[in-house]
């Protein structure tokens, strides 16, 4: 396991090392740069293993993965998936009552919505490298990479079977990330959910909500 600390000033390094993780430090203030650094360190650490046989599983420091998270991703990888896009749920203790109601109005448990979240993402290393890896970007690096892999014919699978709990804090480190979505978009989206006119999808969403996109 590799943990990337980007401009970290707390005790995270000691916690990660005590858990047996290899720690990578950067000072980029960029989630894309941090993810790319983690991938490089992991591939270097795995030596001559073929990229096709390496599965990279990605999450965030403010998230908690379920016990079946890696097993579920690997099961899908063995069935041919190049990318596994998992769902996330905010920690409802961080939201107010209106936000909680809005979340349940726009999400169906057990249904994969296909939204790309770096907090719950698995990618075959060969597909990741062929697509150029994570961009050095402060936001949407995960979406851009998944879109590039799909454009190259990669097999994408969306799933809700191993959802990840992530922070529902109103202010996050990524300026246009999940915190901004919860703070600014969630409630208006729920209000439009009952509008008969089709919704315009955002940059972080796919064109399809199917469990698999060829």
Q: Please, could you describe this protein's structure?
A:
This protein is an alpha/beta fold. It is 35% helix and 19% strand. The protein has 7 helices and 8 strands; from the N terminus they run E-H-E-H-E-E-H-E-H-E-H-H-E-H-E. The chain has helices at 12-18, 31-45, 69-78, 97-106, 125-130, 141-151, 178-192; strands at residues 2-6, 22-26, 55-58, 63-64, 83-90, 121-124, 156-166, 212-213. Strands 3, 4, 5, 6, 7 and 8 form a 6-stranded mixed sheet that branches. A two-stranded parallel sheet has the order 1-2. Strand 1 (2-6), helix 1 (12-18) and strand 2 (22-26) form a beta-alpha-beta unit. Helix 4 packs across helix 7 (178-192). The protein is globular and about 50 Å long. 32% of the residues are buried. Mean pLDDT is 90; it is low at 196-214.
Main features:
single chain, 214 residues, alpha/beta, 7 helices, 8 strands
The portion of residues assigned to helices is 25-40%
Termini Cα gap: 30 Å
Radius of gyration: 17 Å
Mean of all residue-level pLDDT scores: 90
Number of strands: 8
The fraction of residues assigned to DSSP E strands is 15-25%
Instruction: Report the uncertain regions.
Output: 196-214
